[in-house]
Amino acid sequence: MEGDPTLRLRVFNLNCWAIRYLSKRRQERVRLIGDTLRREGFDLVLLQEVWSEQDYSDLKAKLGGCYPFSHYFRSGVIGSGLCVFSRFPILDTLLYQYSLNGYPYMLQHGDWFCGKSVGLVLAWGFTISLPPGSCQLHAEYCREKDAYLPHRLVQAWELAQFIRHTSKAADVVLLGGDLNMHPEDVGIRLLRGWTGLRDAFAEATRFEGCEDGCTLIPNNCFTVKTELLPFPLGIRIDYILYKAISSFTVKCEELKTTMGTAPGTDIPFSDHEAVMATLHIQRQGRAAGANLGTAEPMLPDVVTEARTEVGVGLRAAQRQRYSTGRMAVLALLLLLLQAVAALGALAGLAAGQPFPKLSFSLLAFLAIGVLLLATGLHLFHTMEVKMLQGTEEQMRMALRALQERP
C-alpha cells in the first residue's frame, strides 16, 4: 500500500459446493460463478469446495483478464478445495493442514479425505489469511450430538495460532471461509477472541441480504431442508473476518449476501450463499498496535469452555484407542489359537482324521482382516489422543497466561 494511504477492497467469499459427480448442476453453476465474478470485478475472491482442479482451471481461464493472479491450494486425498483469485500480485503462499480432521472410516462425511486447511497469501504488501480458499473447518453433521466438536475446536485453535504467528509483520489480516460454526459457538468466539478479528457482518455500516446474514437458508433449492428445521431463517456459517495491524484501520462499508437464485437464473451459485464485503483500509499517522488476545475480557472463560470440550473429546478418543487395541489383541489371539488347532489337525491327519481346510482358511482371513483393521484404527486413535492432548496443554498454558495478566 505504499504511496496510497487508502484502499477500497471488495471481497467475495463463497463455498462453491463443486464436487464432481455429486454436486447438482455443478458445471452450470461454476460457469455462472465465473460470469458473475468477471462482471462484478471484485478485488479478491475466496472460494471453498472447488474439488475439481478442472473447475479451477476453467475459472482461471475465464477470469484471467480480471484476476491475473490466482492460486489453488492442494492437500489431502481429494484436495483442499481452496483457491483464491486476486487483482493484486500474489507474492507468496503457505498452506497449513489441520492436525485433526474427522475420521477416515466415516466415508459418508468424507472430511478426512479432503485435508481441510488454512491457506495464507501474501499480496501487494499486506497479508491475507485464508482459512477453509481461504478456509474451511470440519462440518457439523448433528448439532444435538456433535461428535466432531473437539476436532473442530482443535482446528479453530490451530487456525487462531496460525493467524497469530503469521500476521505479526502484516498491515491487514483478512480471513474468509466456511467455518461451519454459528456466531455464538465456542469455536468462533475462541477464534475471534484470541486473534482480535472483527466480523464484517457485525461491523458493516450497510447490510443487504438474508436476515441475520444467514448463508444456509431454506429458500435455497440445494439445501437439505430437514437440517434447517430448528432454524427457520437459516444459519450463518460463512464469514469474512478482518483486522488492521500497525498504522492501519479497516472499516466494513457494506456487506451483502446472495438470497437464493442468482440474478436472471433459476439456480443459486451453491448450497451456500455468497458473502460480499466492501472494506475501507486506511493508513493512519501513528501505529495502532495490536495485542492479540487482550481485546476480549471474557477470553479466559472462552478458553476454559473450549478446553473442557477438547477434554471430552480426549477421553472419547482414549476409549476408542483402548477398544481398538483390545480388538487387535483378540484377533491376534484368535490367530494363535488357529495355529495351535492347525498343528493339532495336522497331527490328527496322520492318524486319518479329516482337515477342514476351507473353514480354517476363512477364519484365518477373517482374523487377519480384523487384526489389520483394528491395528490401523488403534494407530489412528493414538495419534488423535496425542493431538488432543497437545491442544489441551496449549490451551492450559494460554489460560494460565491470561489469568496472570494484570
From TrEMBL:
Molecular function GO labels: metal ion binding; sphingomyelin phosphodiesterase activity
Keyword list, A-Z: Hydrolase, Lipid metabolism, Magnesium, Membrane, Metal-binding, Sphingolipid metabolism, Transmembrane, Transmembrane helix
Sequence intervals crossing the membrane: 328-352, 358-380
Span of the signal peptide: none
Localization annotation: Membrane
PANTHER family per record: PHOSPHODIESTERASE, PUTATIVE-RELATED, SPHINGOMYELINASE FAMILY MEMBER
Descriptive protein name: sphingomyelin phosphodiesterase
Species this protein is from: Fregetta grallaria
High-level lineage: Eukaryota, Metazoa, Chordata, Craniata, Vertebrata
Gene: Smpd2
